[in-house]
Design brief:
By secondary structure, the protein is α/β, with parallel strands linked by helices. The chain has 13 helices and 16 strands. It has an eleven-stranded parallel beta sheet with strand order 1-3-5-6-7-8-9-10-11-12-13, with no helix packed on it.
């Protein structure tokens, strides 16, 4: 065979049949604005026998192109896995819902039975969730096992729509004797907050089959964390729980620790950047002693945990034979505390399992301890959104209310001014006190807005 033919064959294999039944256009960077631009891709889909998986990641698909692709999918009843992340870069947000609706309708018409659906990194907001609402409620998703919606900017509204769709899918599939058995749920960086997380928690409680839950960086505070903790107790096969960079505080951490006592299959816990604090860490240490027999990884980094609580956590993992890593970095353990922590782990012959402590913040000062107590008292109040500026606008006769928001390790100070029209402008500034530095990911990438 000529070298040119070999090269062509290799290229053809690389861009199509990666796995058996899989057609991949991943990372091609194609800009498919209309049916004509998608003509070659549509042809390959139509001619691919026994299509089970379709990869469209790393391309950008417009409404007309999506409709053309959908037409080709209407006859692909064997399709099970849709890898459609990062598929709308540069598109107007208004284009995404109809594109998703077309693709979803095609899957339903084909009689497909999906097991995996990945729409991550599409930043489509709540309207995008509406675009897949019918699909998620349909028989096409009764068999769904893996749902990935990471970094989609769903917000509270999108979280509620998603929760309602999953609940309805479970109800309808149960009525047919094949209840939804979702195993993997990924929805990090979606601004779900308490209401969105609580809505999803109700769905999780019904589903009861989750093995992995990843919901990092969603602005969830203790009410949402508590709702998730209660729901996850009804998912006994849970293996991985990642709630990194949400705000537990003591109350959320204690609720989650209570749930962990009942979950015997958990292997990976990521509560890093969750502000579990010392009392929360002590509750988790108790859960370690009473349960979690096959735990492999525990991340409690950057949580304002002091020496005493950190040592309790370390001692609690002594009999975890499968433990591979304990991360307590970025807390308030102090130099002597870090030394004591290493000694405890070494004495249990587990020194190599302790992660780096290079970012430890040192022992907390007395005023920081006082702040922690004050913050805990304020958890009883309804959480308020953090804002840097509030303008009264047309409410000329309304007096500015005293700002009550107290962000982590800081206080709000106010600057007030009176406009010529009599409206009040209140500008608030956060005065930070020293404390653990919280790491955060880049902001959610948004699709291009209409001009």
């Amino acid at each position: 065979m000529a070298s040119e033919e070999v090269a062509q064959l290799a290229e053809s294999l690389a861009k199509t049949q990666v796995e058996e039944g899989e057609l991949s256009f991943k990372g091609r960077g194609m800009k498919l604005d209309n049916a004509q631009a998608a003509e070659e891709l549509v042809k390959e889909i139509e001619q691919f026998p026994g299509l089970q998986a379709l990869r469209l990641e790393g391309n950008t698909v417009g409404v007309e192109a999506a409709q053309a692709i959908a037409k080709a999918l209407e006859k692909k009843s064997e399709l099970q896995r849709c890898y459609w992340s990062d598929m709308f870069t540069g598109r107007l947000r208004s284009e995404i819902p109809p594109a998703l609706t077309s693709l979803g309708s095609a899957l339903m018409l084909a009689g497909a039975r999906l097991t995996e659906l990945d729409l991550s990194d599409n930043a489509f907001g709540p309207d995008g969730v509406r675009g897949i609402d019918s699909l998620l409620r349909s028989a096409a998703c009764f068999s769904l096992r893996d749902l990935r919606l990471n970094n989609c900017g769903m917000g509270i509204g999108g979280g509620k729509i998603l929760a309602a769709a999953l609940t309805e899918c479970h109800r309808l599939s149960s009525a047919q004797g094949t209840p939804l058995r979702l195993k993997v749920f990924i929805a990090g960086r979606n601004r779900l907050e308490n209401d969105g997380a609580t809505a999803l928690a109700h769905a999780f409680k019904l589903i009861g089959s989750l093995e992995e839950v990843h919901m990092p960086q969603n602005g969830i505070n203790h009410p949402g964390v508590t709702a998730l903790a209660i729901a996850l107790q009804h998912n006994p096969q849970l293996r991985v729980l990642n709630l990194n960079d949400n705000t537990f505080t003591k109350r959320g951490a204690i609720a989650m620790a209570t749930a962990l006592k009942e979950l015997r299959s958990v292997q990976v816990i990521n509560f890093g950047d969750c502000l579990v604090r010392s009392e929360g860490a002590l509750a988790i240490a108790e859960a370690l002693r009473e349960g979690l027999p096959i735990l492999k990884e525990l991340n409690l980094s950057f949580g304002e945990i002091t020496e005493e609580a950190a040592l309790e956590v370390a001692q609690a993992v002594e009999h975890k034979d499968q433990l591979e890593k304990l991360d307590l970095n970025g807390n308030c353990i102090g130099e002597d505390g870090c030394k004591a922590l290493k000694e405890v782990m070494d004495s249990m012959k587990m020194g190599d399992l302790l992660g780096s402590l290079s970012d430890d913040e040192g022992e907390p000062e007395d005023d920081e301890d006082e702040e922690e107590g004050e913050d805990e008292e304020e958890e009883d109040e309804e959480p308020q959104p953090k804002k840097s500026k509030m303008v009264a606008g047309n409410m000329q006769h309304r007096k500015a209310a005293e700002v009550k928001v107290e962000p982590r390790r800081g206080r709000v100070t106010e600057l007030r001014a009176q406009t010529a029209e009599g409206s009040v402008v209140v500008e608030s500034a956060v005065k930070r006190t020293p404390g653990p530095q919280r790491r955060s990911l880049p902001p959610v990438q948004s699709s291009e807005e209409e001009e």
